[in-house]
Amino acid sequence: MGYTIAQKIIKNHLLSGDMTPGCEIALKIDQTLTQDATGTMAYLQFEAMGTDRVKTELSVAYIDHNTLQAGFENADDHRYIQTVAKKHGIRFSRPGNGICHQVHLERFGAPGKTLIGSDSHTPTAGGIGMLGMGAGGLDVAVSMGGGAYYITMPKIIKINLVGKLSDYVGAKDVILEVLRMLGVKGGVGSIIEYGGEGVKTLTVPQRATITNMGAELGATSSVFPSDEITLEFLKAQEREDVYVPLCADEDAVYDAEYTVDLSLLRPLAACPHSPDNVKAVAELTGMKINQVCIGSCTNSSMLDMLTVAAILKGKTVHPDVSLSISPGSKQVYTMLAECGALADLISAGARILECACGPCIGMGFSPKSAGVSLRTFNRNFLARSGTKDAEVYLVSPETAAASAIAGVFVDPTTLGAAPVLNFPTKFKINDNLIEMPATPDEAGDVVVERGPNIKPIPAGKAPDDSLSCELILKVGDNITTDHIMPAGTKVLPYRSNVPKLSEFCFTVCDKDFPKRATEKGGGIILGGSNYGQGSSREHAALVPLYLGIKAVVAKSFARIHVANLINFGIVPMTLAHEEDYDKLAEGDEIYVEGFREAIEKAGTAVLVNRKNGARVPLNLNLTARQRSILLAGGMLNYTKNNSN
Ligand code: MIC
Ligand code: SF4
Predict the structure, then answer these.
(1) Which atom of ligand 1 is found nearest the CA of 495?
(2) pTM of the entire structure?
(3) Ligand 1: does its nearest atom lie under 6 Å from the Cβ of 549?
């Protein structure tokens, strides 16, 4: 039996485990990336592990999320990351160089290699045939130190692409169609592989838009073949030396297969507040809009920007609309300036932002009260934009630009024939904002600078024999990490200050949660299905840990979040019978006898609700490694214990 693309990469990097879906496997990681909102924690943890120099082939620290710098906090974090990177052998991508995934694709990604990043959209690298996976900062720190990355061997889902996209239908519409078909849980436990004749019609940036939003399917990763189009892109980046061809074997077997006919696709939009709430733009035509934001790691490539510039050229943004544009990287920004397209954007009235995440992570550009915002981004979770009652729609750059001019939703396919773009066959190469680390000989002289906002990481605690506490919060299905640990201008400056961050925990769902949790000394949380979907931010585990959360009981968990909970010693347990969710209410006193023993060996436990006497069976689906981590009170304790 042949192998799929993902299976080939996994096989080449397998350190231990059996490649049967559902089994835990350990992978060798070739490259890592961090960004600044998760990077500070990742490097503090790396330092705590005591490794002098990274052991990966390449590790890069990007500054792209916290670039607003309304106070000293982010600037201090940036300086910490810059100095710690220099000392330990990590390249540093300076603020202004662009969004991590875009820059990594352009300058470092390599087909057939493995990459983990402390950001959930690391699978963007799949556009180039690389196996990119999002992970918690602690897992990235372990891999930087040469340790394996553990995942559950995924199932492989094939999306067979046929036909060719019509004018004004973009790669974003392809992934929105996949999200419509599979939903935000549809990729959990799977890698999504793209194949079929339609693949040849898509450029690398288009492929990367598609793999980027595989994160919204809950997939472990998404990957395209590496072919002549990949080679063309790498040549244009003067990096053809890293090219290797990679495709699935003829007789590869997939766990599921779907077909998307590109020629039948029409512009789509993900409606509030979930990326899988997809409708045809034609159904929304005429709806008044207030804001348009173009950019993010999903749609900020040169191709996207040229498309937008061609639509805006000679026009004016509607008076009732505010349009922001953030190019994805310095390379894109410079080339836009040099070819004149930047002038077309500026003249049309676009507000040009620096090449960073910006509004995507709520760093400015919050819409007006109850405003309708069209964004080319990948997430429209409640309150992520900074305005809780805003209605955020995720659309293609084509739909965004056409609508920005009209002031209402416009189906761009009604604009006639698409303009012919002069897509560059050669990109502008200038890596002057990538700082090289000190050599091993010089590293000793580098002083790591730590600002006052950098506070110690809370320590996990080994679990008690039994668990007796309050069910302190009950939440529904698809709770995102933006609910658990919101971001945005007010909160992001504190990503290295857990005590301060704790004041914002879960406030999107319940503004009194931090106060209640502090007063009661913590407790457990009850969630629905897909608990913790979205970001890789380990703060969504670290901060609950700080507030005394000992366990989370849910119908099911999202992949990266469950790994983060375990890494910080919070015990994830699933309801054996989903209907038992109704037997538990906020404020109930609960008791789990033999809690520690259940982690140690049993794999099941019974939660007793002292209020109504209900007995709720729970499952602890843990591997031997995960049990040991939890019993030690988290990964840092576990690593320390094992190195003594
Ligand atoms: C996001 O898109 O939610 C983020 C911000 O990039 C996160 C990382 C973070 O919270 O710092 C992600 O996707 O992992
Ligand atoms: Fe940045 Fe948004 Fe991409 Fe996250 S999804 S990495 S915030 S651009």
Answers:
(1) 11
(2) 0.97
(3) no
The predicted structure's pLDDT at residue 642: 79
Looking at the CA of 296, which ligand is closest?
Answer: 2
Atom of ligand 1 nearest to the CA of 361: 5
- Which range has the worst mean pLDDT, 175-184, 238-247, 334-343, 635-644? 635-644
For ligand 1, whether the C-beta of 91 sits within 6 Å is: no
Q: Is 67 in the pocket of ligand 2 (CB under 6 A)?
A: no
Answer whether CATH 3.30.499.10 is correct for domain 5-262.
yes
Sign of CA dihedral 221, 227, 231, 233: negative
Task: State the average pLDDT for the chain.
Answer: 97
> Is 161's C-beta closer than 6 angstroms to any atom of ligand 2?
no
How many degrees, rounded to 5, is the angle at CA 38 between CA 36 and CA 475?
A: 135
Fold of 467-643: Aconitase; domain 4 (3.20.19)
171: number of CA atoms within 13 Å, CB side? Answer: 28
Contacts of 111 (CB under 8 A, 6+ apart): 128, 129, 130, 226, 230, 242, 243, 244, 245, 246
Query: What pLDDT band is residue 643 in, cutting at 50, 70 and 90?
Result: low
Q: What confidence category does residue 181 fall into, taking pLDDT thresholds of 50, 70 and 90? A: very high
Residues of the chain with CATH 3.30.499.10: 5-262, 269-412
DSSP E strands, 315-394:
322-325, 351-352, 372-375, 391-394
Mean pLDDT for the stretch of residues 576-599: 97
CATH of 269-412 given 3.30.499.10, 3.30.450.90, 3.90.180.10, 3.30.70.141: 3.30.499.10
Output the pLDDT for position 602.
80
Ligand nearest to the CA of 492: 1
